[in-house]
Specification:
The protein is α+β, with helices and mostly antiparallel strands. The chain is built from 4 helices and 7 strands. α3 links the parallel β4 and β5.
């Protein structure tokens, strides 16, 4: 991944992150049932508006252009606004890579940065939620060692099952 840097988003990056994330997730509109897509689209848009303590926005930049992003919620933050039982682990959300930049390892680099930061914070696990329509992401998470944590799954009305995964950080 030459020429790629992963770093905290700058204050002026917010609109770029928003556009990148909406573009990346819009591909799911043709894969998911309409009600499930509507639920996911609303959840993505709401999460992009989140501000405040306990949420880090991390970007991957190549050639001066943001080509990937992810949000990392501290263990104390509620990443899903009360929709799911709190696990007490840091949680990554809204991993997005520009369609033109896929296949270059950017998604893994962003998750690796979340793992590094979670370890640095003293966390014993890192969590995330995804759904079966995000097949490439699920394969990547499982390849990276994330394990299913079905006790933290949830299903918003009309939406797909939102599946929980965790990555044990002890000794890995």
């Amino acid at each position: 991944m030459s020429g790629v840097t992963v770093h905290d988003a700058r204050p002026g990056d917010r609109e770029t992150i928003r556009a990148l994330t909406l573009t990346a997730y819009s591909e799911l509109a043709s894969v998911m049932a309409p009600a499930a897509w509507a639920g996911l689209d609303g959840a993505v848009r709401a999460a992009l508006e989140v501000e405040g303590e306990g949420v880090e926005r991390i970007v991957a930049e190549r050639g001066g252009e943001i080509v990937g992003s992810v949000m990392l919620y501290a263990h104390s933050a509620d990443a899903y606004g009360g929709l799911v039982k709190r696990a007490g682990w840091p949680e990554l959300r809204l991993l997005a890579v520009a369609p033109t930049a896929r296949g270059a390892g950017l998604g893994q680099a962003l998750v690796d940065e979340c793992v590094r930061r979670a370890r640095e914070s003293g966390a014993r696990e890192l969590g995330l939620h995804t759904s079966e329509s995000l097949r490439a992401a699920v394969r990547m998470y499982e390849r990276m060692g994330f394990e299913r944590a079905p006790e933290y799954d949830f299903r918003p009305p009309g939406a797909e099952l939102v599946m929980a995964y965790r990555l044990p950080l002890d000794g890995r």
